[in-house]
């Protein structure tokens, strides 16, 4: 029988791995179960550099958030936010603008519970328990309505989450629904898994097999497929590019790990 930690919210099945808890493990977090760690170890055996992708995702998020604040945006909607770790959106935002408002959204009870604990007493950040696959539940959530004024520009962050939407979830329609709710001047930030340098190789297939064991399989999309999410937005320079190449703080190294090319990033402006 699997021991249930005292911090585990009641009612969750700790025998099935969760993508947010696997990601937490990759980022060095402690809010994951053995089933998550085992899934992560299998993925790491196939592609040892996976944690670098998680770190690169976070680095892109921070750069995009700084850009948004620099454009005067003071409202942030981070869907699929996961389990809070150091350097999360509200920490980056509030370093630059303490009065900006941040709404995190996740459907994992562990992520929601720990977000509530981390954000307790913070009047400018909150967590909403909702599912990206039902975008209206996100937009109509009481915490979203309380915190955000959708009549003004918002930075919408879909960081490392759209690749968990199947074709049957109609991912493009989901993003279009969110887009239509945003005011002109809003930004869309996306990072997304992509096949490494062409068709999936055997290691990538093994990683996909790991995610097949969770409730949210990993769907890799090409650059044109990711660009399609920005329909109705003006893609900002340099477009949809590998993670390390989206407005880096310093030039990417010539000997960077090729695994970093399995992630794409892009930011769009709604005119």
- The number of helical runs is 10
**Uncertain segments:** none
Oligomeric assembly? single chain
Q: Report the principal-axis shape.
A: globular
Radius of gyration: 18 Å
Work out the strand percent: 5-15%
Query: Distance N terminus to C terminus?
Result: 55 Å
β-strand number: 8
Structural class: alpha/beta
Mean of pLDDT? 87
What does it look like?
The chain is α/β, with parallel strands linked by helices and 271 residues long. It has 10 helices and 8 strands. Strands 1, 2, 3, 4, 5, 6, 7 and 8 form an 8-stranded mixed β-sheet that branches. Helix 5 links the parallel strand 2 (101-106) and strand 3. The longest helix is centred in the N-terminal third of the chain and has 21 residues, at 50-70. The chain is globular. The chain starts with 18 loop residues before the first helix and ends with a strand.
Short précis:
This protein is α/β, with parallel strands linked by helices.
Layout of secondary structure:
Layout: H1 19-26, H2 34-46, H3 50-70, E1 75-79, H4 89-96, E2 101-106, H5 109-119, E3 125-129, H6 135-139, H7 142-147, E4 155-159, H8 171-181, E5 187-193, H9 202-212, H10 223-227, E6 234-235, E7 241-242, E8 263-269
Parallel strand pairs: 1-2, 1-4, 2-3, 4-5
Antiparallel strand pairs: 5-8, 6-8, 7-8
Notable traits:
alpha/beta; 10 helices; 271 residues; 8-stranded mixed β-sheet
